[in-house]
Amino acid sequence: MSKGTLFDKVWDLHTVGTLPSGLTQLFIGLHLIHEVTSPQAFAMLKERDLKVLFPQRTIATVDHIVPTENQARPFVDSMAEEMIQALEKSCQENDITFYNIGSGNQGIVHVIAPELGLTQPGMTIACGDSHTSSHGAFGAIAFGIGTSQVRDVLASQTLALSKLKVRKIEVNGKLKPGVYAKDVILHIIRTLGVKGGVGYAYEFAGTTFAQMNMEERMTVCNMAIEGGARCGYVNPDQITYDYLQNRDFAPKGSDWEKAVTWWESLSSNADAEYDDIVVFNAEDIPPTVTWGITPGQGIGVDQKVPTAAELLEEDRFIAEEAYRYMDLYPGQPIQGTKIDVCFIGSCTNGRISDLREAAKIAQGRQVAEGVKAFVVPGSERVKKEAEAEGLDKIFQAAGFEWREPGCSMCLAMNPDKLQGRQISASSSNRNFKGRQGSSSGRTLLMSPAMVATAAIKGEVADVRELL
């Protein structure tokens, strides 16, 4: 029985049936694929002599392995070249739309689908990538899936899933200057824990989210997965519709009005029942930095690395591991931590508004000596828009490198990697050991404006000092 939440309504509308295992067979409206998790899935289809059931519901791009300095083909990295060729061939054979480099629409999969208007309220979306939860910003239910599930969606356009509980996360009030969407989600994960969302979908609600633009909402939903939630979403509203109107794949003419009426009906009812409700005050959220090896190990920029005694008992073991790995000691202020590399980009923070905020900090200033700082737009469209606004010139004048679109150092399946024990200020989404390409490299997560601040100062610093 539906509890009246958007999650319940969308789930019920897409339920094909209940499988003997008790799992729901859920229809997937949009399937996004890239070069990393799809080659094996296509190979599995061939082995079983199966075709892609609805090729028009699958959209492909290349993002994880693309170099961001020189994108000339063939790629210098032969394995990367092999992967892109495999995707090109599979898309051709199966009549799948592929936004390749130079198409004008290539980019990180979670950046291009929204900007093309492919992502719409009420949809079910799947992609072989953890951060598919980003698309929930539109009031869609979006799942990151594994390679065998990519195969299942290609073959049947459905997934076998257990229904989730729904936790409403309310944030109310106005964010203080220097506090961004990234700080909001890092604060939520810090409070509820990296496993707090296991078994849940997160509904982000309250006046703070109502005031956020679509790109800010995408940042928050993107990292719902880092808090253990399977997906995160925001109910659609006028901000959603204004963003979508006139985009390539958005409904047109009289279909537009019908679509908006339909989307409105999907929002959670005023009397919807939730399995849990958590409330935050926006004014309590500071510019936030991670100090450890999980996205939940975050603190305000003006705070100190917590001592074991300040932590819950179940968090102490991982904290001890983090102190050793990060070379930070309990009670040490995070501000003043020296930085080697500054990375602005990723599916969390590589959109135009992210670059604008970072450029405000970079303008008229210089990257500190010895710091490597670079900016990677999330898509070819973002790059074009940023260059039309002159953001590339601002960054380059300040000493940042301006790159081609791709996932870049976020997971470093390309030439952008940390070297040895380098420590990076990163606008990406994960600070796990080895995440940014070096088995001993260290990552501090923060907002793009905070990364730009660290680049200028050469150390972790408070963005509010430069605003």
Shape: globular
CATH superfamily of the largest domain: Aconitase, domain 3
Measured by DSSP, the beta-strand proportion falls in: 15-25%
Count of discrete alpha- or pi-helical segments spanning 4 or more residues: 16
Number of domains: 3
State the low-pLDDT regions, or none.
Answer: none
Mean pLDDT: 97
Taking Cα atoms only, what radius of gyration do you get, to the nearest Å? Answer: 21 Å
Assembly context of the chains: single chain
Sheet with most strands: strand arrangement: 5-4-3-6-7
Please tell me the CATH architecture of the largest domain by its name.
2-Layer Sandwich
CATH topology of the largest domain: Aconitase, domain 3
The overall strand count is: 19
CATH class placement of the largest domain:
Alpha Beta
**Main beta-sheet strand count, sense and barrel state:** 5 strands, parallel
Structural class: alpha/beta
Work out the helicity level: 25-40%
For the termini, the CA-CA separation is 50 Å
